[in-house]
Every structure is written in structure tokens, then in C-alpha cells.
Amino acid sequence: MSEIQKQELTSMNIAEEQLRKLKELFPEAFTEGLKVDLDKLRLTLGQSIDVGKERYGMNWPGKADCFKTIQQPSIATLIPAREESVDFDKTENLFIEGDNLEVLKLLQKSYLGKVDAISIDPPYNTGEDFIYNDDFSNSITSYLSFTGQVDDEGNSFSINKETNGRFHSDWLNMMYPRIFLAKNLLKDNGIVFINIDDNEVHNLRKLCDEIFGEENFIEIFNWVKTETPANLSKKSKKNIEYILCYQKNKSDIKFTGIKKESQSSNGLLNQSNKLGILKFPANTVETNIPNGVISKGMYGTDSYDVELIEDTEVLDNKFVKDVVLRAKFKWTQTNLEKELENGTIIKIPTIRFSPSYEKLEYDAEVPPNLINSKVGVGTNENAGTDLVELIGKKVFDFPKPVSLIKYILKFDNQGNGIYLDFFSGSGTLAQAIFELNLEDSGNRKFICVQLPEPIKVKPSDKEEQKKVKQNAVEFLNSLSRPHLISEISKERIRKVIKKIRDKNQNDSSLFKVDIKSQDLGFKVFKLSKSNFKIWDSTLEKEPEVIQAKLFEHIQHISPEAEQEAILYELLLKSGFELTTHIEKLTLAGLTVFSIAEGQLLICLEKELTHDCIKAMAEMQPTRVICLDEGFKGENADALKTNAVQIMKSKGVVNFRTV
Question: Are residues 498 and 394 located together in one domain of the fold?
Fold first, then answer.
């Protein structure tokens, strides 16, 4: 390290990351830099590349722009909203208010390959849905325009009407980049659940097959959304919706459904199995056979032959001698002994010697692809009732039941991990995570992302829609909050936390765990323009525009930027999670922030000293970031040169300024 490097202030460059992965696999197919030699790649792969003009695949108008959208890094940031959070300094749960496309880009560095499961309920494209019309060239400006943070005549969000000639294409253009970016965040065995109805289920399946690979498709689960379907069609009543499930890389891990609660008798014989011998120890088998000695010989039923190899004896409804049988059994001797240790009841009720078993507790079964009340999952109506009970009035159309989210999140049988919902809606995922952790002492964390969508009553709204929106507006007015869906989401989470704490205060025996050990909080962040003046490559190329922008960039930090906001932007763009522990230190009289137990040191002082630089180096962090304007005065260049040498002498090779 001969000079100080500049800190990167954009999100991860997806195109460069994909090329890096490709180069790791096929370095011989690259020329100087990151240029792919397609001829060499074809030679390397032999016949694996299809060079024909026609091939099977999914195409639609605008698909090429989806990749431009994915590849355009974000120059935005996430600003902490401490006053809207609960337990900001300790919690590891996140609620992010903003356009999920920009947010997903910003999370790439910090959460790449860290998310255990994603559950989303995107717009169904019913002709009344909210559609994000992404501008790949300047997504943050479009977002700021939408939220009223800058003046602009454009509007990047609209209703997708069926009369629109690109009805399905617009929906696909909205979904593709988001699913693509979300996949990057999943662990290798991470799972995604996507709710959808029959308007786009066919297109969503093809889209996910392309992004995840057909081989990683798990199931289309059918959820019974209502017990009272509307009579709107002359052909059928719709009472189900679909949940598409994919795994990033399909594994052999067994999904966990519900446990069978009622005891039932299960036969131990199976015609397709090979003949085997089982020895049932004395006093372990129940029976209805009268007392007496039973001679060895052939027994069985019309379907199964069973041979009793040794004489045995019954006394008071139990075999008091070993029962040794030869037959086509489901179990081996090892299985039998293990089940007996676990308290499984073995019965041979009649002289036919056909054994059966009853377990005291059954293992959880693989979940069926029908999700309904039989597996403990409610409907939209149940969810609506629960939300009204929590909020006080109906403020949301068709919320998903908490029981549904809890049910599918338990498929992976984990008690910890990060769970993401980037179409958060009313915030159901957050409540599901809190409740699951209370039920099984888990340590799951959530990331909820919701657009600050305005709640506006339109003349075209149906009476029920108008009533719900009016309720929402009245509810938010009572809290003196803006009329935004995201505000309802945050308040719902706060009310869930309060309800849990109030219940515990009234009766601490209600919960199996000590709630003091539970993370009942969430940090709020809001999508915003960067705290730094970042050069935007999408600007007009007119000389006068460029000159004006250059003049603006003389002062690198935005005048309205606050220290905590700058700190979190640098943390995020350095690849640290937003919940990483931050410690405020004083070194040589100056403030320095220690990130992740000293892995990263950030100094935002505007007048650095030799002593402070030396003190930071003595801590031997992996990285150090300082403000460029901290090197001031006549000796600024000399201080920079000395800083590099001091850091290098202590093994700190990643020293950056911003």
C-alpha cells in the first residue's frame, strides 16, 4: 500500500461479481482484465454451449432492460431512524422503508449468502396492483421523486391495468430484477416462498425456473385463503392461492411439517420388503391372546406369512417370553430396539402374530402441498380479524395470516437465521418471527422492506376499499403519522411487541421462555440519497451540466448529512451488516468508531492528528476509513504519507478515505 485508497460508495457491481465467479471457474477463457473470450469458453466447455439461433426459453418485451437494471449499482444509502425504532442499539431485526429494488442492491455486500429464507407476497397483477416501473439509469432519483423528496414531473410507480398492451411484460420486468437480486442473498441451501394467484403463477414459475434453475424447484403449495369464496365467476369459486417454493441449491434436507398428535396403530409388515427376523424381548409386547404357551410354527394372515421361530408364552396380556418372528418387516432389529427405548408401544393382538406399533410422539411429517386448517393455518378472514383486534379497526385488505408464515418458515427446522420479506405489507413476517422465537426459544431475525406507498382514496375504489383506506388514514392521524402503508407496518410491529410485553407482565407463565432473553425490537432505516456527493454516470453529457455538477462536488459531504447516517453508510458499503456492534472510542482526544470488535475503524473527525492515526494503527484493525477532508493544512500531504506508513508498519493494508 503506497497511497490511501478511496472508499467505494456504490452498491456491489453485480456484473463484475458475476465475471469474477466465472473467472474463478474458467480463468483460461479470460483475456486481460475481465473480458470473456467466448471462443475459448466454447472450447473449454466442448459441446455444452448451444450456438444455434433458436433455443427454448422465456422472453418478453423489456427483458434486456432487466439485466441493465440489475447491473446498475445503487448510489443511494440507508439512513437510520432511531426515533421510530424499538431498542435500536441492541436489536438485530430490521425494518427498511424504501423501494425494494434499491434496497436489495444496497444489501448485496453486507448480506450476500446470509439469508436463510425469503417469504414474499408481491403484487398479483390483478389489474389493480401497484407496479414498480424501474428506471435502470437512475433508480434513486425516481424513488425520491415518488416520495416527494425531490421535484420531478416523472412518476415511477403506477397501476398496471389489463388494458395496458404490456400487461404481463410490465409485471415480469418488475419481478425479474428483484428475484434475481434476492437469490444472491440466500444461503446455498436457502429457501424462497412466493405467494401468487392464477393471474401470473404460470409466468412466475418460468421466471423462477430461469433464475433458480428447474432442478431447484421444490413445490407449488396450495393455500386455502378463504372458506367463503366469492361467487364472481360462472365457472368456479376461487378459494386457493399458490406459494411457489424454490431452494437456491436443492439439498437432501427433509422439510418439517406438523407432528401427528393422535395415537394410531401402524403395521410392521410390508409385502415389498425382504424376509427378516425380529426378536421382541420378553415383557415388551402387549396382546389380547389368552394366557398360555404358544408353540412355534407358521401363522400370519391371508396377505402375510409369519413364522414363530421359538415357543413363547402369554401372561396377563403380555408376552413374558421373547417373541422371535420371521416375516417381511419394515424395521430392522436396530430400529426395533431404538423404538422400544423411546417408549414405542408394540402390540401383537391376535394369534395371527401380525405386529403393530404406537408411538408416544411421532416425528414431524413432510408437509403436504395443501395448506389449510388441518395443518393449523388460517385464512385471510382469520388474519383480518387478528389484525383488527391488534390495531382496533380494519386498515388493511387481505393480510396474510401469521399462522401461514410461521408454518412455512418452520419447514427448515431451524431455530435461528435471517428471514427476509421485501414486500412486507402489513409486517406479518415480523410478528411471525417474534411468535416462533417465543414458542421454541429461537433466535431468528427479520428484515422487512416496505415501500412508503401513499394511502389515497380514489373515486374508482369500491366502497369496501374506501372504508379500509379511510380507517387507515384515521388510524395514522391518531398517531400523527404520514398516510403511508409503511407507517401501518411499523406501528403493527410496535403493537405486537407491546402486546407480548403486556401479556408477560400480567402472567409470565404464558411463555415458555424468559422474554428478557428475546429480541423484541427492530431498527428502522430509510432509503435516501447518499450522504456523499457521488458522481452519477447517468447524468447528461452537456458541458454546462457537467461543470455545474463538478462545482457542487467541491464540498464532498452533503451539508444535511448527520454523523450517525454517515457512519451507517460507510458500514453498509464496507460490507458489514446493519446490526453490527458499534463502539464509540476516544483515541488521542478524537472520536473513533470501532465496528465488529475492531475489525473496522471509522474516524469522521475533520482534523486528523498524527497521534490519532498512530493510536488507530496500534489497534491493528483489518480496515480503517477516514474523511479525506481530515487531512488539512500545509502538511496534509505529509500527514497522508506518514499515515500510510504507520498503518503499513502495523499490518493495516486496507486504509481508505472518503
Answer: yes
Structural domains in the chain (count): 4
How confident is the model over 540-553, as a mean pLDDT?
Answer: 56
Per residue in 580-621, pLDDT (tens digit) is 999 999 999 999 999 999 999 999 999 999 999 999 999 999
Residue 589 belongs to what domain range?
Answer: 535-657
- Grouping H, G, I as helix, E, B as strand and the rest as coil, residue 502 is helix
d(CA 347, CA 358) in angstroms, rounded, equals 8
Is 600 domain-assigned? yes
CA geometry: angle 116, 120, 126, nearest 5 deg = 160
Q: What are phi and psi of 584, to 5 degrees?
A: -90, 120
620's torsion region: left (phi>0), alpha (psi -120 to 50) or beta? left
Same-domain status, 513 and 539: no
Same domain for 253 and 373: yes
What's the rounded Cα separation, in Å, for the pair 220 and 197? 11
Residue 69 identity (one-letter amino acid): T
Strands (DSSP E) along 544-650, which ranges? Answer: 582-587, 590-595, 600-603, 623-626
In a domain, 340, yes or no: yes
pLDDT of residue 43: 78
Task: Give pTM, 2 decimals.
Answer: 0.85
Residue 430 lies in a domain: yes
Q: Are 204 and 244 in contact (CB under 8 A)?
A: yes
